[in-house]
Amino acid sequence: MDLELIQIEPQTALAVFTTENALEPYLQRVRDEVFTFKADVSTSKGRGEIRSFAAKVTKVKTYIEGIGKGLADEQKLIPKKIDAARKHAKDTLEALAEQARKPLTDWEDAEEARVDAHKNTIARMEQIAGISPLQRPVHELREFLAEIEAIGVGPQCEEYEAAYAKAKDAAVQALTAGIEARGRYEAEQAELAELRRQADERAKKDREEQIAREAAEKAKREAEEKAAADARCAEEAILREREAAERREQDLKRAAEDAERRAADAEEAARRRQAQEKAAEEAEAKRREADKQHRGRVNREALQALVSGGIAEEAAKAVLKLIIAGQVPHVSIRY
């Protein structure tokens, strides 16, 4: 069987895809062709035949899938069309139902507004009747009373006329009593405020007088303290001057004593210095004399040694003089 001959008619396509096993004959045809197909894969021709046959099977697959997809797309549009029709019917019927009920709805709305207006007015009167007079000034209570009195009670109140009358009477009585009580309270408060003001003025005056007295006493006390301080300062100044004079006298006395002591010390130092200088001169004279005698003895001994050595006495004296004068190199006399 040639796979290209597989065809699904449009008029039967929906039944083929929606009826159980209705598609199986078409698949079986392909299955039979696949199972009976033979080709030599070892030859180029055989491989070409296999490739061509597989392409035909794929073509059948694509064909059947295309028909099924087309049917599915068509079926998907059906719920949308149904929903659109349902919505149109719903909206139309709701509008018609609302239009049919409109007279009743309008009456109910008007009735609700009428009842609410009566109830709100009655509630307002009850609210005002419950206001505490101690929390509102008299002028506000009078404004509330005027508001209550302006509310009429009669046929216009309809079935709530009795409630209107009861609420209005209660509010008028409460406000009248409240205005009277509040008036007394405000009068008492005004009297108390005046008493407090007078007390504050007296207290202020007393404070000012007290401040003035304290200032005067302070000034007097400060003046007395200043006078006493000035007297103490004067006494202290006199005492300091006396002490300073005594210190100056003592300083002069000590200075004189120091001068006398320094003069005596200087005189004693001069005397000691003169004695020391004299003693030093005498000691130096003795030393020079002793040195002279020592040198003379050494020189005589040296001269005697030269003479004993065979040098003539005059020549020996000349040599000795040269040695003593240091004119003979490397030769000296130890004294």
Automatic annotation (TrEMBL):
Residue span of region Disordered: 198-232, 245-298
UniProt feature, compositional bias: Basic and acidic residues: 245-293
Protein's name according to its UniProt entry: Uncharacterized protein
Organism the protein comes from: Xanthobacter dioxanivorans
Taxonomic placement: Bacteria, Pseudomonadati, Pseudomonadota, Alphaproteobacteria, Hyphomicrobiales
